[in-house]
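Final report, results section. Input specification for complex C-07:
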Amino acid sequence: MNRELFLEELERQLQDLTEEERAEALRYYRELFAETAPDEEEELLRRLGSPETVAAELREGLRDEKAGAGSGETAQGRPDPGALVERGRRDRRRNGLLLLVLFLVFGLPIAGAVISAGFSVAAGLAGCLLGVVGGLLGLIFAGFVTALGLFVSGIALAVIGIIHLASPPNGLMLMSMGFLMLSAAMFLSIAVKWGGATAVPGVVRFAVGLVRRFCRWVQGLIRRMFGRGGAAI
Amino acid sequence: MVFNTGAALLDAIVLSIVSRETEGTYGYRITQEMRSVLGVSESTLYPVLRRLQKENCLTVYDREYGGRNRRYYKLTEQGASQLNLYQTEWQKYSARISAILGGGGSL
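Structure output:
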């Protein structure tokens, strides 16, 4: 076992750490070896032990660091911040359980009513959203059909107008009406395309976003109640 | 080592070692000192350094030496006051232990 093999194996052993943690740890050991003279390297390797041992110690140390390790209190009883965090988390868990019991005993009937009310509100909102989307789709369809109709009659009128160019005023009038209808048709079809490609997907995406945010909020509530603390403090 | 060295004591000793240099000191030096004082291994030291960094008692910077980068650890203001606290606590604590254990000498 030499330093390169050791470091390679250590890197392999640390695959379960985050990239940052792994890089920091490897850097620390790499520097140790860099500072060690070649004739002391063997002793250092012996002292460190196998890469597996070092990796295990690292993991334990990092875990303790995250959980706020410490002997709890220093001599004069001033707790170190790690112990405070640990105790805080324990207390919160106990509070969460107490709340749950109270809730079950007293809150269930009320909760039942509240929950069903909540569901009806949610269902109502969902219905609203569906209605809006449906309405938009309907508008788009109507627009499409109208555009088609305008297009066909526009062409028809224009043709008739051209045929009747013999009697100029009538012919011209028919022709211009025909072209007007054609341009209206084009305008409508652009509007329809916009509706289909942007408006409806936009509304749908907005609705989905709302739902997702709501779910995450509920998740956060539940987690806070049961004291699992979410992100590390 | 007969007595288990708790995390707080390790923190205190590391802070003390780092405090001796105004510019701080590098990892390998700290491990050497730790080994001579406590006999703890390099692997024991790493989590301590990480913890002190996370608690903002130590700050790190790199300095080039002999074509490679050395990571230096330096005491922050918070680290200095934390060290002070540890020193006061240690005085009281060790005095009480010495009193009850007897055996004289300084710990």
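The interface with chain B takes residues 24-25, 27-29, 31-32, 34-36, 44, 47-49, 53-54, 57-58, 60-62, 64-65, 69-71, 74-76, 78, 80-82 of chain A (CB under 8 Å). DSSP finds six helices and no strands in chain A. This concludes the modelling results for the funded period.
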